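User: ok so my PI wants both of these folded by tonight, can you help

Assistant: No problem, let's get them done. Here's the first:
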Amino acid sequence: MARVLLTGMSGAGKTTVLDELRRRGHLTVDTDYDGWTLPKGTWDERRMDQFLARHLDVIVSGTVENQGRFYDRFDHVVLLSAPLHVLIDRVSRRTNNPYGKTPEQQAEMAHYIQTVEPLLRRGATLELDGQQSVSELADAIESLGTRTP
């Protein structure tokens, strides 16, 4: 496996795909948990830098303002995307994260689709349709293969 960053809007399926890749035996990090993201909504750059220096084969998931500073450290930046109605449906039903349940948060999600997702798309090396099955998405990420020279 290569070093991969899986990014996308809330509800795109990042955590679900990461869980499947972890189940398949891959080293994964979901930066939404365990202190990877600081209160201001950015990665702990020192911690991420140290982690990436130690791990060549890892799948990291997250969407934060400063992730672009690390793009050159990943072999692939994969954008997982889905239409707004799909994102809202998913976040309203999930139990592992409270974000996206209120009308205000859903309006914020719509705004982010217009303003943040295009930036993520520009930095991505691959975009996957988050409406595919979890198995298909995990297969696609695994197919990225070994590290690029």
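One down. Here's the second:
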Amino acid sequence: MTETVLLVGGGGREHAIARAVDDSSDAELYACASNRNPGIASLAEGFEELSETDADAIVDYAADVDATLAAIGPESALNAGVADALDAAGVYAFGPQEAEARIETDKAFQREFMAEHDVPGCPDFATFEDPEEAADYIREYDGDLAIKPRGLTGGKGVRVIGDQITEEEGIEYVLDSDYEEFVLEERLVGEEFTIQAFVADGQYRVSPAVQDHKRAYEGDEGPNTGGMGSYSDATFELPFMTEADYTESVEVIDAVVEAMPDYKGILYGQFMLTDEGPKVVEFNARFGDPEAMNTLPVLDTDFVSILQAARDGEELPELTFSNQATVCKYAVPDGYPTDPEAGAKVKIDEESVARAAARATVETSGGEPRDVDGDALLFYASVDAREDGIYTTTSRSFAVVGLADTITGAEAIAEEALEKAGEEGLRVRHDIGKADLLQQRIDHMNELRGE
């Protein structure tokens, strides 16, 4: 049976999902998003421009194309009840309904859920509906705090005292920002990483760990962004982790799935590896962006078969991944994220990106160049495809992903791909995946652990 899959969303994450659907056997892809992503449009049988939060319009489009499955990318759609509406219309949506999506969309619910169900890895926290009370808590707390607005902030709302801001700046933030409700948590110190799990019918299947880079500028400087890039290793663990660290993190996911049996879709656990083991920074109710672009290209299991099994109440297939490392680097508009410049025309040479892997080299231990065996992929993100070309929006423009046997090799391919893609007028964090930054991560964990 040929499945007709409706994809909701138009960013880099959704382009990665579109590629995964396109690689599946016996599947047709249709897509809808508020921006026309040229990468998705080139793979889809049809593309409708509409708001990702307009559940009625999405259901109507699903009916028009006779969709049999849906994959929901952005959290805004989940928060708007798009999965609920599609499920009610008889189109199985691989994404949690609004009630379960609260594990991401409501940070107070998230922590209270963890505490109620004894989910391991929960930091010390307190919730506030009054900014003045939150400010008093900051003044009185013995230690540094992470300040999180209760709802969705696009990955840019968190402020960390002792890292990004001072205590006084934290008090000013809760009193003067547009947010009124906050969750205040103990500051976690360590190395962040993400594990994304496919979940349905009380089952789950996990994927390799990924480390995202939120800070806007090289050296982990500047404001937080939606993510400037990320990397994964050829194993399920990252270089600064042990197998035990990964296993302990999966136990957290196991506890969430057990406590939330109706959850379906992707459960994204963002962890901080501390000297006491993994702690939960947050959960997301969908693929990460950029982490989807690390995970899906190395997924060997047929993507649509996972959705079919979830819909049909069958056992989820065991997931297999190619033993490759990945490095993803985003090109973003000048001024991103605080004052991004939209409307700039960008020229992207897709054909040269595809050939980039053949030109990438790394240095051997003797300092001689060595060719890298791997692949390069381009993912369009928040760009606007018009008749006369592709233009930037106020969000991230496109990403390149290098795949190779090692992180160093994948990084070399990503850099070669960026050069060929064309990044004029855009900004990139070139340090993501480089050997010296990886070593800093390893040294940091060794120091925390007293090794």
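The chain has four domains: 3-97, 124-186, 189-312, 325-446. The chain has a mean pLDDT of 94. Good luck tonight!
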